[in-house]
Amino acid sequence: MKKIVINGGNRLNGSVCISGAKNAAVAIIPAIILSDGVCRVENIPDIMDVNLMLDILEKMGAKVNRINRSTVEIDPGNISSSYANYDEIRAMRASCYLLGALLGKFSEAESALPGGCNFGVRPIDQHLKGFGVLGAENSVANGMIKLKSNGLQGGHVYLDVVSVGATINIMLAAVKTPGRTVIENAAKEPHVVDLANFLNSMGADIRGAGTDVIKINGVSHLSGTNYTIIPDQIEAGTYMAAAAATNGDVTITNVITKHLESITAKLREMGITVEEYEDCIRVHNKGRLHKCNVKTMPHPGFPTDMQPQIAVLLSVADGTSMITEAVWDNRFRYVDELKRMGANISVSGKMAVIEGVDNLKGAPVKATDLRAGAAMIVAGLAAQGTTCIEDIRHIERGYENVVGKFSSLGADIKIVQTDEPTSAN
Ligand code: EPU
Question: Domain spanning 2-19+231-417: which superfamily?
Answer without folding.
Answer: Enolpyruvate transferase domain (3.65.10.10)
